[in-house]
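Lab notebook, page 48
Experiment: co-folding of the full assembly
Goal: obtain a model of how the components sit together before planning crosslinking
Operator: M.T.
Materials (sequences as entered):
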Amino acid sequence: MKVKSIENPSQEDLLNILSEGLSSEAIITIFAHCRVHYDGRAKSELGNGDRVIIIKPDGSFLIHQREKREPVNWQPPGSRVSFQVEEDRVRIISVRRKPRETLEVELLKVYLASYLQAEDSEELTLMGSEAEMRDYIFENPEVIEEGFKVLFKEKPIKHGIVDLLGRDKDGNLVVLELKRRRADLHAVSQLKRYVEDLKEEHGNVRGILVAPSLTSGAKKLLEKEGLEFRRVKPPKREKAQRGKQKTLDSF
Amino acid sequence: MKVKSIENPSQEDLLNILSEGLSSEAIITIFAHCRVHYDGRAKSELGNGDRVIIIKPDGSFLIHQREKREPVNWQPPGSRVSFQVEEDRVRIISVRRKPRETLEVELLKVYLASYLQAEDSEELTLMGSEAEMRDYIFENPEVIEEGFKVLFKEKPIKHGIVDLLGRDKDGNLVVLELKRRRADLHAVSQLKRYVEDLKEEHGNVRGILVAPSLTSGAKKLLEKEGLEFRRVKPPKREKAQRGKQKTLDSF
DNA sequence: GCCTAGGTCCCGTTA
DNA sequence: TAACGGGGCCTAGGC
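Observation: model returned without errors.
Model output:
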């Protein structure tokens, strides 16, 4: 039986769903009027209301209100679930170690208890990421400028990791910072950090921000710092297997 | 009737749940074997598998696999849901405008269709945020150092917005960058940007990173740049109503 | 485990 | 609306 659900379950029904769901590695979903307490990296309280609660077999724990994409409270994968039974109510507790965090849901009224023994071996294939942009430029360095050659992908330097490092036709070192979406002040600061880092050991170093567009503030700071911009949109292409080759030569 | 659920629903049952759920502003939850297509800021494909699908009345749309805290596919609040009926299957489509994004779920087999007319007026109260840290320092500037005085909270400068701006006992301008958790390279770059910005118009400017700890790389860069560190942990205290007072004086 | 950085980030706030 | 920065961010990839 792949799925099980009980509307307005008795306490016994609820405990059965929870035990069976947990032991069979199912995804458990509960509709309930509840209250939530969290303490860990931060601390929170949520008063009584109707929510959707999801417990996954990897320990992920989600509590959703009727709005927003984000769960109002949660626990990340690896957390351990248990439950406490009191006279008239059930408490679900999830504990994470390192950092220590506890999430406690007090179930005041359960409208629906259910689980699904999900079989799913598929993984998402995503197109249009920064990683694809990087591979695209690696293979087509001329989209940056004529004569540009890539030396390194994901190259660790003194303070950080550069997306792409290469040389222009005049032999200058060139740092590329890629953004899949509109680049902001943060992106410029990041690029500036890399350029200053490399300038300490090499002569002239150019920094180019590569993105579909720039925020107004990013443009101002970029120009003030003598950095450059190239407009490139992330390609939405099927990805072939990407080789791990990272270096062409010492520089 | 606050909740409704049907196991292994017929196509008619399923369409009823969807229509009723959407029109009554309920949270809809479906257990289904499905396939998913997304196109928008990026593009993705997800092959057949069992998932939990949640549709909220604000347009939020979540598709969860059996692992991870994050939905494998989603649509943010404000998206518009519709469905298409074919001979043997139902397709749920969610469209967002600005940017244009579409999410399409092909339901191959539905194990459970349900909705909850959730009533919930409670909001989360969170303790231990950076905002609380800021207020704490604003009220207790001596935790930074003896003689330190705050001038501005959340002060916009030329390139960015400074968390706290003040003066030390010698009259030097002091920029504080706060982090509620261990500060990294990014935080140092951010602080450096603010300090360089203010140095252009004021004489000596000190930059202090205020956080519970530092990453190794952040420490190295901080020292190299002549910036400082103060160890402060975010307070987990109940928040009173926070005044909006931001400035004490021109500087 | 720590560090570094991306994300279809989401989200709130402000000009 | 765009811009800016926080987040209990989460997640992936190195080391």
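Interpretation: Chain B touches chain A through 73 residues (CB under 8 Å).
Next step: discuss with group before ordering constructs.
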